[in-house]
Amino acid sequence: MSILILLIGWPLTYFFGDTPATRGDFVDGLDPADIPDTAFRAEGLSEIHLTAAQAIRTRSFWTISLGHTSALLVVGAVIAHLSLYLTSEQGFNQQRASLVILALTICQLVGMAMGGILGDKVNKRWLASAAMLGHMIGLLLLAWADSRWMVWLFVPFHGISWGVRGPLMQALRADYFGSTHFGQIMGYSSLIVMLGMVGGPFFAGFLADQTGSYRTGFTILAVAAGLGMSFFFLSTPPKQPGSSLETS
Questions:
Q1: Which one of 102, 173, 219, 227 counts the least CB within 10 Å of its CB?
Q2: Roughly what angle, to the nearest 10 degrees, separates helices 59-89 and 94-118?
Q3: How crowded is residue 198: how many other Cβ atoms within 10 Å of its Cβ?
Q4: Which of 189, 150, 236, 176 lies closest to 72 in space, CA to CA?
């Protein structure tokens, strides 16, 4: 895959050019003057583009990063351990466990489409908070499942929440901090977020080895997802340069 990316992906990047502004175009080809006043405007959307240093000094940079981290605690743990959990504790054979994972992937794709559409019409941080609630409910259903319907109910809760939340993470940062320094801001945020993707599988696996079951680890991670919901609630738009950059 690395070789394919180098041979195919890298050369294709030259066809994308720079930002629309450098070509005299508008983002998405839409002149802001032509957009009706009644059109939905994303919370925190501004023409002011924060530098990475300015973004890091805002509360929203940290709350979005920590909310994203708590989501990936759940996502990482499910990716790493779902198949083993289903076969070792829920009595699924490999074929049926694979069907659960397939259904989860389909629900994620549906959620991604929903997130892209709703993100242009509804407050993104409220959507992200709702998705964290879905993560929490889904993982609790999985952890305490005593019948297979609870496992199958976990699938839409977690899958759709995962899909809806995914596109919003980058869009929310772009709304709040602008696009000029987005790569650097996202890079710094990723240093925090990666702790969730690494820590979730490790934590769930460690507790499973210690207790003989995934229930305790999954339950604690579900609570962490609930905490992530509060992080997104607190992710109000940052104040722009010219006022205090501490937070809004």
A1: 102
A2: 160
A3: 12
A4: 189
How far is Cα 28 from Cα 165, in angstroms, rounded to an integer? Answer: 22
What is the rounded CA–CA span in Å between residue 227 and residue 174? 23
Residue 241 has pLDDT above 80, yes or no: no
What tens digit of pLDDT does each residue of 224-236 get? 999 999 999 999 9
Q: For the domain covering 59-233, report its CATH number.
A: 1.20.1250.20
Query: Cα–Cα distance between 64 and 76 in angstroms, integer?
Result: 18
For residue 125, give the 3-state DSSP assignment: helix
> Would the pTM of this model clear 0.70, i.e. be above it?
yes
The per-residue pLDDT for range 95-116, each reduced to its tens digit, is 999 999 999 999 999 999 999 8
The DSSP secondary-structure symbol of 179 reads S
The pLDDT of residue 247 is 40
Token pair, residue 47, equals 């023409």
Q: What are phi and psi of 241, to 5 degrees?
A: -55, 140
Q: What is the DSSP string of 2-24?
A: HHHIIIIIHHHGGGT-S-GGGGT
Domain boundaries, the chain: 59-233
Q: How far is CA 182 from the centre of its chain?
A: 16
Over its C-alpha atoms, the chain yields an Rg (Å, rounded) of 20
Q: Which residue has the higher pLDDT, 28 or 45?
A: 45
